[in-house]
Amino acid sequence: MSAGSLALLAEAAGLLIDWEDVHGTPRTVSDDTLLGVLAALGWPAETPAQREDSLQRCLHGRVQPALRTVQVGELLALAADGAAEWSDEQGQAWPARQVRPGAWDVPAEPGYWRLRIGQAEHAVAVAPARCFSVADATGTAMPRSWGAMLQVYASRSAGDGGIGDSDGAQSWCARVAAAGGDALALSPLHAAGHIDAAFSPYSPSDRRFLEPVYAGALDGLEAEGALEADATPADGLIDWAGAAAAKWHALRQSYQHFRQAPTELQDDLRRFEQQGGAALAAFARFNASALGEGDPALQVYAQWRTARSWWRVQERAGVAGMALGLIADLAVGFTPGGAEASAAGDTALRGLVLGAPPDAFAPGGQVWGVSSYSPDGLRCAGFAPFIALLRAVMRDRGGVRIDHILGLQRLWVVPQGADSGQGVYLRYPLADLLNLLALESWRHRCIVIGEDLGVVPPGIRDTLAARGVLGMDVLAFTRSPAGEFLPPPQWRRTAVAMTGTHDLPTLEGWQRGDDLAWRARLEAQSAADHAQAMAERHADVARLARAVGGGATPATLRLAALRHVAAGPAPLALLPVEDALGLRGQVNLPGTVAVHPNWRQRLPSPLPLPTLDRSLQQFAAARRAQEY
Question: Is residue 324 within 8 Å of 400, Cβ to Cβ?
Fold first, then answer.
């Protein structure tokens, strides 16, 4: 096999043969991995003839993008000549000007435009320079907003049936707003499809639609005694399969009650169905079949009441004075056999799943088991799936957190059934995706937060910051090269500050080494190895204590850490409710399935309100006290 021809094909197909790992060590992808991934992408390369044919098709056979993107003030690169005009989304037309051969002036107003040159039409998205910002939302030049981060399923409310929902989130919105907060960041609310004991909110069936088990009560539509007040098992862990079944049973009863609902509610459902169009109808048919619910109309109803429930929470957040309200979480992909994959058709990756090489979260690497859209598929479809996805998650929200935003530039793809070491990075059209993100961000007045953690390509954080995408500064990783925790003034102004994420131990658990105990148990570490890990953790706890100004007990060190994170120059700081409550349990232990209670832990009942109130007060006070 000619290594050179394989490398040429891999490069043309968008694969990164050479890359650097989390430690900066150069890595080279093996030929076997390249062959497997190329075959899945539709570029077979086993023989010299296949490689040559695939290379020629890859270089010369690709269609032109169905939608071109450009920023306001830039020139549109388009090799065409002749009399031309721009038309906006309402059909109003203006003359177009060719600045020089192959370069056209673009309208000064962001939007989706059409450029007609002779008989040819070209779709063009003209994007603002940056995303909608916290400053735009608050009307403050140097905002110091703050909020909390909630795993929705973990919240509690009367009659939630064992899974937290919009009513539980509403209670947290009220608490945060009363303490002066502007935002409540949520775990993903995507439609899950079939829910079993291995449920993860980051492995959804369809990100365009909402999961009905998270719908709160709607006046007049609830059957008497439809759900138990608290169906959480004695061990305090969610029984996903049982609780979801109970909630769907209640939804069916609610659907029957809906037939006697007031006319305005029925009219609202009809409008919702009309606005959802063919996409909602196809989703309802898919779910009715996949979930064993024979009536697609029930699925439409479930989507309507779920959307209405969350719209109500956002509306009340605004009334309570929150500048942002709810911040949605957009998962990186969808299950290969789910509704979104079915709707995606040829635009989806087939035979490949996403993951990550070894990094600080998972030293052994990860295979997430979800898929996404292919770069070529997105271009051919005029980025329609990406635009529809952004509109779905931004609707009725004040912000969106994009999981693994580095995927807008490259995704680690792995053949189905392989481990993470058999993966390779696949390039994506970053400039186009950022243009569309900025455009939709302003249309929905929705800030954008990007999870820029893990193996971070050089320069990507600067690129994202320049486009108004906020990064994530997490206490555990915000350190000097020597490993010391950075003082607040040295944290980024272009990132959201936070004490932790769902993939990290809580502050209380970290101090005690709870995560290390889990790893020791799961990896069958020797006593000596575990003792060494604990000694290193104790040294790290001492580093944190020095950085934040002391802390004689885990509780006082936690509060000092909260103040430390809140004191920096970030426009927005977010506090996970687990850290606000002083909890020890880790939400998710990356790289584990079934052996750790991932995504199953509910918040305590009753809540330790004195602890919570003090945490919120300390966090809010630290935000008010500093000016940068």
Answer: no
